[in-house]
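Dear V.,

Thank you for sending over the compound details. I've combined the ligand you provided, acetylphosphate, with the protein sequence from our construct and run the structure prediction for the complex. I'm sharing the raw inputs here so there's no ambiguity about protonation or stereochemistry in the SMILES, which I know was a concern on your side last time.
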Amino acid sequence: MAELIAALNAGSSSIKFALAETDGAAIGARRLSGELEGLHTAPHLRIRDQGGNTVEERRWSAKTDHDELLDMLLGWIDRHIAPDRLIAVGHRVVHGGTVFTAPVRIDDDAITQIDALTPLAPLHQPLSLAPIRAIGKLRPGLLQVACFDTAFHRTMPPVAARYGLPRRYEAEGIRRYGFHGLSYEHIASMVPKGRTIAAHLGNGASLCALRDGESIDTTMGFTALDGLVMGTRCGSIDPGALLYIQQTEQRSAADMQDMLYHDSGLLGVSGLSSDMRDLLASDAQPAREAVELFVYRIARETGALAASLGGLDTLIFTAGIGEHMAAIRQSVCERLACFGVHLDAQANARHDPVISAGTSTVSVRIVPADEEAVILHETLVLL
Ligand SMILES: Nc1ncnc2c1ncn2[C@@H]1O[C@H](COP(=O)(O)OP(=O)(O)O)[C@@H](O)[C@H]1O
Ligand SMILES: CC(=O)OP(=O)(O)O
Ligand SMILES: [Mg+2]
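Below is the predicted structure of the protein with acetylphosphate bound, written out as structure tokens.
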């Protein structure tokens, strides 16, 4: 009988998981891994065994209740664990605020503190708390660990985290935190030293400037609304525009929040979909403009982070769009030619690990996102 650790990664459009063996000292083989993606469009479940063979696949034709899908997934995993013994579950939790700068054991107090951060991550915090609570009921007493997206960015210098607001707000925790930290931590373990910009392009999207593997700047801020244009989130915007809309349309704060998190970004601009696959398949002008805006803003923010780093040695693409969409990588890199970024078109089309041309002064690579690896490791450390 083997002992197993599970990792759950609740994202805004997907739930990913991994189940790995452990001898207590190291993480061993991944017994199962999988994902439920397209949660807001057409959910698709795929689970793979240790050899990478698909052992379960299901599709839903339309958006399905999140709790129902989560129960189905947890039930499936629970049925397939026996006769082995699950000894811990690690979870991705998006916001740790100023309270959590390292992984923690989850108890009632931790749940209360994580829940208290919901206004800072309204799209994500409830998605992390749902499986934590469900597993607490399913397996009371099982060790659960929270691993925070914000924690990786604790190395950012104060000047990168500070906002130009009256001083007292910084003392109250109003500052840049940054997210996708578990993904960037994985990337930091995979890339050489030097000046790296990692582009995590999923339903949520951000860039991180890494100096010798440490975060020194990132595009997301106090919340996961800042920075790039995302599936349904606006990204950076003049705060004056928000004040104007709120005042002239007499909108409530809850209504504004809903618009900025759920109705904006690729969905809002295209009027068609938050899913990049739908946009690239469409000839409609608004869909093309949404894609153009997505690419433009990645290039613009890459320029800003290159200035934070004082140059650029390596550019990494990761997550759903970053790993799978050659056309987006190509358009981004065309805009970055002034920084010495040049792609090898064939390597890019094949999604090779290294996609830069020999003439490129910047090494451009694809690193598959593996937040689960970091969660498994951090959970083992807490065991
Ligand atoms: N093969 C693919 N599988 C999943 N998502 C893909 C794929 N190719 C492109 N994508 C795009 O990636 C995005 C979702 O990325 P993902 O990293 O799974 O999101 P998140 O973790 O933020 O929920 C969607 O816009 C989707 O269109
Ligand atoms: C922080 C964030 O935006 O995460 P995701 O990409 O999973 O939505
Ligand atoms: Mg994700």
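A first observation: The two ends are 19 Å apart (CA to CA).

Warm regards,
I. M.
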